[in-house]
Specification:
Blueprint lengths: L5 E5 L9 H12 L6 E6 L5 E7 L4 E7 L13 E4 L1 H8 L17
Parallel strand pairs: 1-2
Antiparallel strand pairs: 1-5, 2-3, 3-4
């Protein structure tokens, strides 16, 4: 499968009509560069849809996830957030990922 060494979240809402090229431009604007083996997460204003852009070292992958009900837990304010794999797994399920640190240890109530 695709190797991902780092996961980054863009906190500002993104137009979900954006494709690979437009999201790649957003990555460069927000993060400075698109690093190999790095994934970048974007959400719409309602946080009901997310897009994941992954640079695998050879090309770009784009995945989309939509919740039929509710919304993803998305940070308010700020530009970017680094995620652990555990936090990413919780986020895509719609769980409160900010409470988890590495190893699934709860740090915040």
């Amino acid at each position: 499968m695709i190797r991902i060494d780092a996961l980054w979240l863009a906190a500002t809402p993104t137009d979900m009509r954006a494709g690979i090229d437009r999201l790649l431009a957003q990555v460069i604007l927000i993060f400075g560069t698109a690093q190999p083996h790095t994934a970048y997460l974007f959400a719409n204003a309602r946080a009901s849809r997310i897009k994941l852009l992954v640079h695998d070292g050879f090309g770009i992958w784009l995945a989309t996830r939509r919740l039929n009900q509710g919304q993803f837990i998305w940070p308010k304010g700020g530009n970017t957030v680094s995620l652990t794999r555990t936090q990413f797994d919780a986020l895509i399920l719609g769980l409160p990922w900010e409470r988890l640190s590495e190893g699934g240890i709860i740090r915040i109530l």
